[in-house]
Fold these 2 entries.
Entry 1:
Amino acid sequence: MNGNKQAAGVYSVPKQWAERAFIDAQRYEAMYAASIANPEEFWGEHGKRIHWIKPYSTVKNTSFESGKVSIRWFEDGTTNVSYNCIDRHLTERGDKFAIISVGDDPKDDARITYRELYAHVMKWANVLRSQGIGKGDKVTVYLPMIPELTYAMLACTRIGAIHSTLSTNCPPKVLASCIADAASTVVVTADSGTRGGRKLELKVKLDAALDKLPEVVTSVIVVKHTGAPVSMLKGRDHYYDELAETVPDQCPPEEMKAEDPLFVLYTSGSTGKPKGVVHTTGGYLVYTAMTHQYVFDYRDGDIHWCTAEISWITGHSYTVYGPLANGATTLIFEGTPTYPSMSRYWDIIDKHKVSLFYTAPTAIRSLMGSGEDAVKSNSLASLRLLGSVGEPIDPKTWDWYHRVVGGGRCPIVDTWFQTETGGILMTPLPGATELKPGSVGTPFFGVRPELVDAAGNVLDGVANGNLVIADSWPGQMRTLYRDHERFEQEYFSIYPDKYFTGDGARRDAGGHYSITGRIDDVINVSGHRIGTAEVESALVAHASVSEAAVVGYPHEIKGQGIYAYVTLIDGEAASDELRKELVSWVRKEIGPIFTIDKVQFAQGLPKTTSGKIIRRILRKIAEDKCTEFGDTSTLSNPAVVDHLIDNRLNRK
Ligand code: ATP
Ligand code: MG
């Protein structure tokens, strides 16, 4: 049996990209140096890309000093996010499509112009007001990927309310805890939704959550989406349509301070209970708009499609706020990549002439499994740039994405960021950075990454260490909702005076970074610290392997042994022979210290509702501590875990 050799190629920047892109290599160097040498001046200039009601006179007022962490940008300026995302485009782009909305059913799609968006958002704002919502109040938004989700979020920003948007995958327990944590008095939902042909019982799940919180929520606004009948609690539940009839059409934007909270967003929960991350108004919008333009080389006329659910940071920043602040056309899709067929994504790209396509490795891997034919029935000629985000992308998947989806001509921006960072912190820039599969390139303007060892010593040059950020950037989170102490503790105390990302990374001689995995997941084999990404990439490079996750477990001689969970491609059978072959394959690919001790074949891997592998659960199974999983509220596929437990290899 032969595997594919791991792609190790480096792609230099094509001439036409270097010539045409906003940022070429020289400009990157100059702008980056300027952003670090004088952040005040740099951001003072770039802050002007958004409209300010009252211009700022101070730019940066930030401290990472442990115990006194305070992050304020453009603090005496005032602005309004919905004004920036809608009103200011109306004269020149009123008839341009702001949103292309693609339904779960391929027959359903809709286009919304900026002028229509304006009308919808003002109506929504007045409906929220009619339910007692004003400046500083919290609204939970629990909607499928339909235009109303964007209307509701922008309506909050119009009147200065703070939104907390939750994934439709959230089970009632998580819904209840997030609603209670954010203390939202109003929740917006839909009767139900459909995703991948399956019904999403949104109102039913919300009712179950609210049963646990009788006091908190005074109003539920229900969008009639599928038209399915749902139970409505008198006095509390209202259909949006009925409320809309009773409120005015016009709603001027509220003047907001730059540091007024914009939203609370809960993290994916890969490493534990989700945290309520708080982002504010001015700096966030400047940073997401600027990264959207430069990272994706966004131009007027591009059709931008970020497939992430809007309820994750990627959707907030690169489906809604960044693109709309730039006057872009953004596509939102209600369904899944595999319904009604494996070519759904590619059909949408051709039909709507998508030019910038941004998705996650987990989606690409699942589509790669169905072969190239599903892609090749479409031309994909409109694509000019591809993006990846959410997890490390292994070189085999990168190569397939580049060759089969991008036709070899589209650069891939592998963007690293976190809910906490608001926008992309490290990425290749398509006109400036040579592309190396598995590398997240170089820092964006104003971002100062450092690698440190466990004791906090800064590592220079080529190095492998823990990734911290030495100074603030405008899109950074400001606090954890109602828990500034935990914010300080979790992010600024481990390496005093630096923002701790929780991720490990490697830096090569050219100053390019690769994310090696989460630090919690590092495996220590006979004194060698091994990140998960490298071993997993090597496993996935084998032709029989679809997906892999590795964790450490206590080992008498080596300290920790490497335990691999492997799912095979369709039609491939698990065998002892294959197990042995995978072990020797990985040794050959990346070296003998990476000798895997145990290989468990799996039907699937435990994932969060956003599709990220939860290695913390896998670690417990490998340690035979199957009753100690901790918070599993964001686990999307519990049946997979039962199967893993039944077939575990370490039993006492
Ligand atoms: P929690 O913090 O609750 O455990 P989470 O970290 O999964 O959840 P997110 O903020 O959605 O929540 O994810 C950010 C993390 O995703 C990063 O810290 C990193 O581990 C991973 N990540 C994101 N983009 C990339 C990328 N391009 N390459 C490698 N890893 C990435
Ligand atoms: Mg995290």
Entry 2:
Amino acid sequence: RVTMGVMLATGLSAASMTAALAQDVTLRGASMFDENHAFTKTMRKFEELVGEYYTGDVEFDLRLNGELGVESDYVNFLQQGVAIDYTIMAPSNMAKFAPAIPLMDMPFLFRDLDHWNTVLSSDAFGPLEAELEKNADIKIIGYTGGGVRNLVSSGPIASLDDLAGHKMRVMGAPIQAKTFAALTAAPSAIAYNEVYNAIQSGVIAGFENEAASIQNLKFYEVAPYITLTKHTITVRPIVMSGKTFRKLPEDLQAAVLKAGKEAGAFGRELESREDGLKLQEMLDAGQIKVQEFDGRETLLEMVKPVQDEFAAEIGATDLLATIRGM
Ligand code: X1X
């Protein structure tokens, strides 16, 4: 793999560096899933489109099935500019570097798919992208997502009464824990690759996730109850390490930005279309039991003050009002 640093160290001239980069660039990506997951398909689309838009040689080395860890590992790699160059990532898994970014995937942010589409088609998230780039040197090159997150548990949860004290895993951002604590559950932040075992061993009774991932990682084997709280429509940035991006020739940078945007649109259409189908597939296969949550509207009222407080804390009160008003 040729990097700018290696070439400078070996004393190559600017012209030969450009030529070498133009000939041999390998970008390494990471997915927690296999080829069937919408994230992996979106990254494959990104690779295909970069190949179409860039006239030089570029290769992709996408590592699947969590070979390089989970998102809480990827964010460190991207920030340091080591191990991987690009991936798809939950904003809440980037909170340690950019405290405001979890606003993007805060539960109950979007009213419905139309609202989610409107916000993602606007530049509302611009200030959050800028914070991420400044604090973590991670560049958002597109947005995918579109899965609906529900409660996933080893036993049934039908109403607020069942949620009281419910031991559940949440993603690492404080706003995630605060939200579910406001709903009277007992949340704890646990790495994604420890969730299956934590449920199996009874350390927790469940977590929350979307259909694509529940199916891909077979979480239904230990947590077959899906409660339709529909609390999040996912926003999943396609991200690249700034350290990688800056080393790319300009025409490859342009191709990456164009491909990232288009692959994001592809991924959003794919995952939002497949979400209900995947739930149905698991239901038909007898893998899950699905139930409505009695009193979803009450959940919304309970989390609103938590959302307002978080927005004030990160200086995003106006941004939250703008998003709510879209
Ligand atoms: O809950 C998680 O940590 C993960 O859940 C799904 O697999 C995805 O949304 C992924 O991005 C991550 O957030």
